[in-house]
Amino acid sequence: MADGHTAVMDEGSKKAAEAALNPGIVFEMMQAVQKTAALKAAIDLDIFRPVGEGRGDVASIAEHANASERGIRILCDFMVINGLLTKEGNLYKHTPCSAAFLDPASPACLASVAQFLGNDAMREPLKNLAQVVRDGRTSLEGEGSVEPENPIWVQFAETMAPMMAPMAGPLAATVLGRHEGPMRVLDIAAGHGLFGIEVAKQNKQAHVTGLDWAPVLRVALKNAEKAGVQDRYDMLPGSAFEVDFGGPYDLVLLTNFLHHFDKPTCIDLLKKVHGALKPGGSAAMLEFVPNEDRVSPPMAAGFAMTMLTTTVAGDAYTFSELETMYHGAGFKDVKANPIPMSPHTIVTGCA
Amino acid sequence: MADGHTAVMDEGSKKAAEAALNPGIVFEMMQAVQKTAALKAAIDLDIFRPVGEGRGDVASIAEHANASERGIRILCDFMVINGLLTKEGNLYKHTPCSAAFLDPASPACLASVAQFLGNDAMREPLKNLAQVVRDGRTSLEGEGSVEPENPIWVQFAETMAPMMAPMAGPLAATVLGRHEGPMRVLDIAAGHGLFGIEVAKQNKQAHVTGLDWAPVLRVALKNAEKAGVQDRYDMLPGSAFEVDFGGPYDLVLLTNFLHHFDKPTCIDLLKKVHGALKPGGSAAMLEFVPNEDRVSPPMAAGFAMTMLTTTVAGDAYTFSELETMYHGAGFKDVKANPIPMSPHTIVTGCA
């Protein structure tokens, strides 16, 4: 028995060593571009809808998508290979993930994110990433993704809401733990507005001011109307670095914003935020926060690549970096609240 | 104890269910394009060389690459996240994989494959994959990747040899098991020529004829000279569908070729091969052969996507399909020999 057990372990070690030395990882990474294109195509062709309706054979999907059977078969097989469909005989069916997040019939469907995440203009720098690495900044013009009035933020507001929506509940619960009764909230870079809106939903006495470019705020206002909180939702159009915040506020939200800028810029902005807060008020960031090693967890750490390619000096900042920024702007009691099952962390600071 | 054990299992099941319902897979697939761009950039900037020389800090790599420290730090972290470097403190080191396959100092280095696998022209169809799926064929002009005299095959021959080289030994061993003494070998779509050359190396009485476009054969001839088998290496320039094969041959190799064409075309070609073989001679394909479910194993099955995007009617054919083609052309005794640690299978048939 003992010998048998040892033999099994040796076999396992051998397999691990072989796997470690398989050049397939190089091939796979060089082909990873296909995954992005395939998911975008699958969403554009609406293949997840007929699968959810039980019409998951190639002929039915092809008819629905007005597409060739060869193309649909290879595309659907590729989805199976990548865990976004299953296949039983010749019938494609949903995985739990594709049922929840890719079938348009699901309330949690986030297929629209492919529009923003697959935005060609934002990907332009990937075409010559070596040059971006040499230059140390985006090859996009001006300030890159945060160039004033960049229309991509309207697209962000319109299409990324389903991916951000699950974070709104935890964020509001975390920040409202610090506040009761009437309160004023400033939502900087409001985008779709969901975070401020959720605060207004959870606290009926909260009054929210959304700050973003005017065309973006129109999307936020629509969402505020849908949520029935438009009477407690004001708009402050413009740049967070230029407009007068007004106030004072009990709470300032900075969601998915600081990662676009360098540390001095972040500290300056946090000082401005600090100046707009009531004594005892607080700020809350929603950020991709990698561990101090900067290489884990994968999604939060990997977000730095998006910042390299689309901004001049942004980053996925670690908690210690964000804490230092907060302290540099006069905040204290900085705390991290990772949101389960998401790459995001809520980082709060007290004025 | 029993209760405790049950609790642990429940926790495990819960985690599995949560993992299954994490929308991160959608985000990851939409960002997969970054992986391809990052590996290409890392190779172009030659970052694996200083890492292998023990100069794995950001400043040293940046100096070697003539690049910014911000860019190098984010790029190297991204390599770590994707398993192609490790990080100890602030020092990047090789994984077994990057040491073997990406460090230019390694004899097994296959960094050059990024040139072919990252070829912009071949990726053009991915930009509008939905349309390719609708049409059921490549959006490249004419016959796509197999358009006559397509220059990409010179690039293939020049850059993909390191990835194909490990397959040459197993292929030659498999096919020579059937032949001894003097023999004539036709290597169709010879490319870099490594497969025919390896046969010539393992059998000193083998005489090989390489068939490919003339500019491609110049690469094969160089490799034959390097291997010292040029006296037993002839060139037959042209299209496999048009030139007279000559012969008769003891062995015909069809490596990475049939997947570009539809089944009738493959059968017609195999008939022509059959006609050029001596009685008792054999043919050997090297192919990406997925299981009959067409969705496993991942690399072989996923190769169908490359065929959808770059050919008119090619595919990653299953063993039963290849066997049917062989039988349709008069071959018998068809056998599959998967090559360990590779996505390739050798499929042989007897004339």
Features:
homodimer, 351 residues, alpha/beta, 9 strands, globular
Secondary structure blueprint with pairings:
The structure is a homodimer of 351-residue chains.
Chain A: H1 2-20, H2 24-31, H3 33-44, H4 48-52, H5 58-65, H6 69-81, E1 86-88, E2 91-93, H7 96-101, H8 113-117, H9 120-123, H10 129-135, H11 152-159, H12 161-176, E3 183-188, H13 194-202, E4 206-212, H14 214-226, E5 233-237, E6 249-255, H15 263-276, E7 277-288, H16 298-310, H17 319-328, E8 332-338, E9 344-350
Parallel strand pairs in A: 3-4, 3-6, 4-5, 6-7
Antiparallel strand pairs in A: 1-2, 7-9, 8-9
Helix pairs in contact in A: 3-6, 5-6, 11-14, 12-13, 15-17
In short:
Helix content of chain A is 48%, strand content 16%. The first copy, chain A, contains 17 helices and 9 strands.
Task: Describe the fold and architecture.
- 2 copies of one chain form a homodimer.
- Chain A has 351 residues and is α/β, with parallel strands linked by helices.
- The first copy, chain A, has helices at residues 2-20, 24-31, 33-44, 48-52, 58-65, 69-81, 96-101, 113-117, 120-123, 129-135, 152-159, 161-176, 194-202, 214-226, 263-276, 298-310, 319-328, and strands at residues 86-88, 91-93, 183-188, 206-212, 233-237, 249-255, 277-288, 332-338, 344-350.
- Chain A has 17 helices and 9 strands.
- In chain A, the strands form 2 sheets. The first copy, chain A, has a 7-stranded mixed sheet, with helices on both faces. In chain A, strands 1-2 form a two-stranded antiparallel sheet.
- The termini of chain A are far apart.
- The relative contact order of chain A is 0.08.
- Residues 1-10 of chain A have low confidence and may be disordered.
- Chains A and B meet through α1, α2, α3, α6 and α7 of A and α1, α2, α3, α6 and α7 of B.
